[in-house]
Amino acid sequence: MVDLVSKTIAYTVRPPYRFKDIVHQLHFVAVESAPIVILCVCFAAVVTIIEASFHMKMVVQNDALVPGFAALLILRELGAVVAALLVTSRVGAGLAAEVGSMQITEQIDALRMLGINPIRFLVVPRFVACVLGGFVLSILANLICLYAAMLVSQFMLGYSPGGFLMGMRAFVDFKDLVFAVIKGTVFGAVIPLFSCYYGFRCQSGAEGVGLATTRSVVATSVAIIVLDFLLGWLFSYFY
Question: What is the pTM of this model?
Fold first, then answer.
């Protein structure tokens, strides 16, 4: 894994750059994932703000702080993590299955025989696309999530958009959005590394491809949760 990570980073910064493959992979990662990310973060925002209102009314008999708390939770945790886990289940599984299929059909060995480095040819375009995709999807997920929370607070809790924005302004800062985007970018970088790692280690047969796909999704999901904790702990020193 360390060898794969170091070589991927080294090949990413050194030409030649395969822009056509990067654009193709970016469409798969960001554009095709956007609808499912938008749908799921909207429902996550609805559940978050309704549950926050319910418990705040139960504890302090007042939900005036709900817009601020909900915006804070969305920017610091919800948007980036939910988007990353969704991309992992869709893109990560697809990459692991694709690379695993190439491994068991000896296409990767054929690349080596032709003098083509598999990491530069397969991993680097997917790595760059997932980093860019994570950056874009984290911004999109957070903004959509906040908009959905504002609509819910207006139509179900009785807060006007102006009241929601004022409550949000009291709790969050621009650096919360910056940290959320950094998280999304890091999560995006992790997905192709784990997926391709397990794809290269795929055993023969359909069962091997399925096992590699499952292991890549599980490992990537755990890595995202652990990185979320580490980055949250690191960012706490900047508040």
Answer: 0.86
